[in-house]
Write a structure and sequence with these properties.
By secondary structure, the chain is an all-alpha fold. The chain has 17 helices and no strands. The chain starts with a helix and ends with a helix. The model has no long low-confidence stretch (mean pLDDT 84). It is a multi-pass membrane protein.
Length: 471
């Protein structure tokens, strides 16, 4: 029960930050879709897709390694040591990143190239600061940093797009400003750099740095492979279809961020719990995985009716066709989010190398299927290919966990859970908006009542205990 409360508490903090930041992002949809045509939105989204593979490959997600090593230490002074080691690796990655950017600039011809490069660098700095913040268990500051970034991004976009009539380059500048504001806030509140002492860097050995690099390399390779499952589809849409279609797909993916809200919050809370569990606790990981998957399915089923209701009010008519891509985007997000959830189990048991097998399977399935499926089904094919890729990749990871730690996933319960978003999708396409909202409201009430019936006694006991302590 203590684990459940820890998960709910941390999820609540992360959800609060995610809700506020996503709310700001959604309020920007009418402005972005009104001032940026689908073709330009497609170029912006495609540039970020290419950028992602560069910074994740070069920086190797070193921030994840730093977080994992910080969880191995209790005192704040001790936590500074892996930060110092991580900064050494990060600094080397910055040099490599800028070198790659210079070469690409010399041989290529890309619109707003250095804005794109600066965006990628600030994303990486922001990730490092955010994960260090989590390593210090400063979850509230972590969440508020995201809110501040979202507000700054929105304000800069409004000023540049509406006030000065800029083109889509405003989105790059707004992103850079948002990440910078986030980093400055975290430094002011948490003191990430201020906590570091000269002795922390003096204690760094080649062996410790190499140990972090060795741990990071599989994570970086996994991130690059993951790109071919998640972001490569946007490249194919631009090739097989058009940049305009990719712009429509990008807006549909923004609606997928509704699910990402739940995914990120629960994933961060899950990391806090999983990284502290024993590597032999296979039954716990199996139960948690099953519950997580079913919860994601339920979340999609509940969200879809409200998406159909809100879409016309938040998106310009030029992007109307994106409405019909949202359901499959969310279903693909279920498999993507669950795959990442299982990946965190491997991080928890310190076996990041095994993750590659699951991502390689996902890569092969997606690369083999994405071209014919997009040619056959258009943008829907991109989501179907992604869902199948993550499904087969997840089954591979399940098999590895079963052999390593006795992991047991309830496939029957997961199959029943998957019927929820499938049924909601059928309703989304076949029924009117009022019927969708009515069914979604009734389903939400039933689910809330069931959860209240299941957890009301533990909740009452918990709050009685807290009240007794405070008095």
């Amino acid at each position: 029960m203590k684990t459940i409360w820890s998960f709910l508490k941390n999820s609540g903090i992360f959800v609060l930050g995610s809700v506020l930041s996503r709310a700001v992002g959604f309020l920007m949809l009418p402005i972005l879709t009104a001032y940026i045509p689908p073709h330009d939105m497609g170029y912006y989204d495609l540039s970020l897709a290419y950028l992602t593979i560069v910074y994740e490959g070069v920086f190797m997600n070193i921030w994840v390694v730093v977080l994992r090593h910080m969880y191995d230490h209790e005192g704040e002074d001790e936590k500074a040591r892996p930060i110092a080691g991580g900064l050494v690796v990060f600094s080397g990655s910055v040099v490599c990143y800028l070198s790659v950017a210079l070469v690409v600039w010399l041989v290529g011809d890309f619109q707003y190239f250095w804005l794109i490069a600066a965006y990628g660098l600030m994303v990486s700095v922001s990730y490092f600061a955010l994960y260090v913040c989590r390593g210090y268990r400063r979850n509230l500051e972590f969440a508020m940093g995201g809110v501040i970034a979202a507000v700054v991004v929105a304000l800069v976009n409004i000023v540049l797009l509406v006030g000065f009539g800029w083109d889509f380059s405003a989105m790059y500048i707004a992103g850079i400003a948002g990440f910078l504001a986030q980093v400055l806030y975290l430094e002011a509140r948490v003191g990430i750099i201020r906590r570091l002492k000269r002795s922390d860097f003096a204690s760094i050995s080649r062996r410790s740095v190499w140990s972090m690099v060795r741990y990071a390399i599989p994570i970086g390779i996994n991130a690059v492979i993951f790109w071919f499952v998640y972001s490569f589809n946007r490249v194919v849409i631009s090739q097989v279809l058009t940049l305009q279609e990719n712009g429509l797909f990008a807006v549909a993916m923004r609606w997928g961020s509704i699910l990402a809200l739940v995914l990120h919050a629960m994933s961060f809370a899950w990391q806090d719990i999983a990284f502290g569990r024993s590597s032999s606790d296979g039954r716990f990981f199996g139960r948690a995985s099953t519950v997580y998957f079913v919860a994601l399915c339920g979340a999609v089923a509940l969200v879809l009716p409200w998406v159909k209701l809100a879409f016309p009010f938040l998106v310009d008519d030029a992007y109307e066709r994106a409405l019909w891509v949202v359901p499959t985007t969310l279903i693909a997000g279920v498999f993507s989010g669950y795959f990442n959830f299982v990946v965190n189990i491997f991080y928890a048991i310190k076996d990041s190398r095994a993750i590659i097998w699951g991502t390689v399977v996902a890569l092969v399935v997606n690369v083999a299927g994405v071209y014919p499926l997009i040619g056959w089904l258009g943008m829907q094919g991109a989501n179907l290919s992604m869902a199948l890729a993550f499904l087969f990749g997840t089954l591979t990871l399940h098999w590895i966990l079963e052999t390593k730690i006795g992991y047991r996933f309830n496939h029957a319960l997961a199959g029943l859970g998957l019927l929820l978003p499938v049924g909601a999708t059928v309703l989304y396409f076949q029924a009117s908006t009022p019927i969708n909202v009515f069914v979604g409201t009734v389903a939400g009430i039933v689910i809330f009542a069931a959860l209240w019936h299941r957890f009301r006694d533990p909740l009452r006991a918990y709050f009685r205990q807290r009240t007794a302590r405070s008095s």
